[in-house]
UniProtKB/TrEMBL annotation:
The keyword tRNA processing applies. Residues 326-430 form the Pseudouridine synthase I TruA alpha/beta domain. It comes from Erythroxylum novogranatense. Its main location: nucleus. It catalyses: a uridine in mRNA = a pseudouridine in mRNA; a uridine in tRNA = a pseudouridine in tRNA. It holds the Pfam family PseudoU_synth_1. The lineage of its organism: Eukaryota, Viridiplantae, Streptophyta, Embryophyta, Tracheophyta. This is Pseudouridine synthase I TruA alpha/beta domain-containing protein. GO terms for biological process: mRNA processing; mRNA pseudouridine synthesis; tRNA pseudouridine synthesis.
Length: 509
């Protein structure tokens, strides 16, 4: 009997060693070269949230756009040069889980912007390195470690924006329509003329030496019958010709006794032009004190002018403006307050948590109303259009009832868009994330950077808003476009005819 021969198991081959993969967004370590025998410090990628601020002047918005100068483009380059992003990931933000909390428009600034991603935060000093590669108008405040699943956009519960609106914009009779002003010259019922807005395309505050003028009642209305409706921005050439034909006494920007180089001087409550005595200031003493010619004074405080003219942001104005803004609070269809979004699109429905304008601040002599809005998210131009329509109502270019109409899904109307210069992102809020991860991770908020943020806001954002209004009169010029000719939808159809901005009805044949 043959004894069975034991079979030896075949020898198992060792599997081929796989080459290490290139670092991806899910990898925490830098790929190493096995042939490199030189000892090198190896760092790990960390998921962080970066808090920073920027002044939007000169930028085409936050989001990166090929061929355009954007905040995101400059920030990505700074991250690479500071060593936070490796060479192979340069220009490819998906590889390091890039996300932004908010996408601001062209010219819009931010104080509490947040972005997230996986970056090399070692060696220490990342914030200083980043700022060294960024322009002065972009400042990194700091960063905080977050969970691996964190996304700055998805985890942001709400966003708070602020719009600084000059108080004179709420005066129904400041920066009136040009055709009405021109038509009133020499009629004995002259409207106060905003010469610099009309002729030079910018607003320079005017003063009237030591002379005083009697108040004259206003009874000059535009073609649509509304005395407080403003006209479109007319071209400089056409405007200059119209002024010369209407008033031959005007020469080289200096008017005689018949017209006044002063804006914002109508008292809306009494519908009168109130031009009061102006005391000579230190600045006026440097000028010749002529009683025959009117002088324009650069740098005079607009809020002082408003006091002389009888208009201020008092309790009545504050109550009315806040009542208008509260119409936006809640969940509404805002398809009329954006562009390229249809009413049927689910994204047109947005939730506004609060909208308040109770505080005023004075910057470089201009008094601003601080309009603060908090919402889950906002569409393109939404906040600027909400402000634009609210200003139109305050100036009596539209009735308050138009708000209900504008928020209806089956109605399409053209809503005015306020200038972008006064808008900035104040803070991104992460309440749900902070509540869930409070025991293991730092709170995501601007509390730790409050001092730096306030300094940046005053130095760069507030000063830019005020200086732009002083030099270019952006808001003052925009007010000229708030009229029924440019925005016929501001006239709301009623059962008896057309209701104008003063609440009066014009019968139509």
């Amino acid at each position: 009997m043959e004894t069975p021969v034991e079979k030896t198991p075949p020898t198992q081959q060792e599997p081929d060693i796989k080459r290490p993969k290139m670092s991806t967004t899910t990898s925490d370590e830098e790929p190493c070269d096995p042939t490199n025998t030189t000892k090198k410090q190896r760092y790990k990628r960390r998921k962080i949230a970066i808090f920073f601020a920027y002044c939007g002047v000169g930028y085409q918005g936050m989001q990166k756009n090929p061929g355009a100068k954007t905040i995101e483009g400059d920030l990505e380059e700074a991250l690479f040069h500071s060593g936070a992003v490796p060479e192979q990931d340069r220009g490819n933000p998906k590889r390091y889980d890039w996300a932004r909390s908010a996408r601001t428009d062209k010219g819009v600034s931010a104080v509490g912007q947040v972005v997230s991603g996986r970056f090399y935060i070692d060696p220490p000093g990342l914030v200083e390195r980043l700022n060294s590669f960024l322009p002065y108008q972009i400042r990194i405040f700091g960063y905080k470690r977050v969970t691996a699943s964190y996304n700055a956009k998805k985890f942001c519960d709400r966003r708070r924006y602020v719009y600084l609106l000059p108080v004179f914009a709420l005066d129904p009779c400041s920066h009136r329509d040009r055709e009405s002003v021109l038509a009133s010259l020499g009629s004995g019922k002259e409207l106060v003329k905003c010469l610099d807005c009309s002729e030079r395309g910018r607003k320079v505050v005017g003063a009237v030496g030591k002379r005083s003028f009697e108040s004259k009642s206003v009874d000059i209305s535009s073609n649509n019958g509304d005395a407080c409706v403003t006209e479109d921005v007319i071209s400089d050439n056409l405007n200059s010709e119209s002024i010369r034909e209407t008033d031959g006494s005007e020469h080289d920007g200096i008017e005689t006794k018949s017209s006044v180089l002063q804006s914002d001087t109508e008292s809306h409550s009494r519908e009168e032009v109130s031009i009061v005595n102006v005391d000579s200031s230190d600045h006026d003493k440097k000028e010749s004190d002529s009683t025959e010619n009117l002088k324009t004074v650069d740098g005079e405080k607009i809020n002082e002018e408003e006091k002389r003219n009888g208009f201020s942001y008092g309790e009545d104005e504050k109550e009315r403006f806040n009542r208008i803004l509260k119409f936006y609070v809640g969940s509404h269809n805002f398809h009329n307050f954006t562009t390229r979004t249809k009413a049927e699109d689910p994204s047109a429905r947005r939730y506004i948590i609060s909208f308040d304008a109770s505080m005023t601040i004075n910057v470089e002599g201009i008094e601003f109303v601080k309009c603060e809005v908090v919402g889950q998210s906002f569409m393109l131009h939404q906040i600027r259009k909400m402000i634009g329509l609210a200003v139109a109502i305050m100036r009596n270019c539209a009735p308050e009832s138009i708000l209900e109409t504008a928020l209806q899904k089956d109605v399409n109307i053209n809503v005015p868009t306020a200038p972008e210069v006064g808008l900035y992102l104040d803070e991104c809020l992460f309440a749900s994330y902070n509540k869930k991860w409070k025991d293991s991770h730092e709170e995501l908020s601007m509390k730790d950077y409050a001092k730096e943020a306030e300094e940046f806001k005053i130095k760069h954002i507030y000063s830019h808003i005020a200086s732009t209004e002083h030099k270019e009169g952006v808001v003052a010029l925009w007010l000229h476009s708030l009229n029924h000719r440019n925005y016929p939808d501001l006239l709301v159809t009623t059962t008896n005819g057309l209701e104008n901005g003063d609440g009066e009805e014009n019968t139509t044949s």
